[in-house]
Amino acid sequence: MKPYPFFLYVLLFHSALFGQTVQISYYLNTFPEVRLQEGEARYQQEADYNWYTYQLEYSKGISELKNDDFSVYLERKLETVDSVMNANGRFDKNYYSRVPNQNILDAKAKYIYKDHLNTKFHTVIIQDGKPIHVADDFLMMEFEMREEVKEILGYTCRKAVVKRQGKEVIYWFTEDLGFAVNPDLREGIPGVVLEIQGFTYHCLAFQVQNSTNTRLISPPQWSGPVYSYPEGLKILSKRKPSVTQK
């Protein structure tokens, strides 16, 4: 169901606090939680090395999400492999293949620009080392509100549930900040999403910073073609399968 109609979602931004800039830092772990439930120590170790960080900035109805500099993950490669060899007493080729390399980092890279007042977004997806630039109208989610609440970073958060491919994805969001934004590509949740619990990933905010110094977040300027979202997906389907935006 849609407990918040689309026009109310847009209205929220016209009444937002435009004299503020908010920066939110997120951890994202794309390790399948089902493997952790199997209880093998090497799965837990792999999950511990699979946290990546992203920064979201919101100002004057515009938000921009970027990944941090992932090159630091390449520097820990040997340490990771050594620890696996010591734990298992042998060289684990399957584990080694999942240690971060540039192709893996490209797949985890994110850039999402959103114009919330005009409900437009821009994003780039890197596939096989090549960028696909996409611009389109907002992708809106249908969700169900639940009664549970919890606190994240001092903010009271409500629970919304989205059904995807027969599974539940849980969004914890706060209305305390006066606007709505989601680190996912999609929108529609009526607040700032501070945690996402998916079947194959977990996103969690670890810092929220407010500033009275506002800045203009400009839309990206790309050379070459810019595709609609369906066109971008069509191009991806013709390339080697990889991780795309969630």
- How does CATH name the architecture? Clam
Total number of beta strands: 11
- Provide the number of structural domains: 1
**Count of helical stretches:** 8
Q: What summary fits the major beta sheet?
A: 11 strands, antiparallel
Characterization of this structure:
The protein has helices spanning 6-14, 33-37, 41-48, 71-74, 77-88, 93-98, 102-108, 229-237, and strands spanning 21-29, 51-59, 62-67, 111-115, 120-127, 130-137, 144-152, 155-164, 167-174, 192-197, 202-211. It is globular. It has a single domain (6-237), classed as outer membrane lipoprotein receptor (LolB), chain A. The chain has an 11-stranded antiparallel β-sheet with strand order 6-5-4-3-2-1-11-10-9-8-7. It starts with 5 loop residues before the first helix and ends in a 9-residue tail after the last helix. The protein is an alpha+beta fold and 246 residues long. 24% of the residues lie in helices and 36% in strands.
What key attributes describe this structure?
246 residues; alpha+beta; outer membrane lipoprotein receptor (LolB), chain A; 11-stranded antiparallel sheet; 8 helices; 24% helix; 36% strand; disordered C terminus
What's the short story on this structure?
The protein contains eight helices and eleven strands.
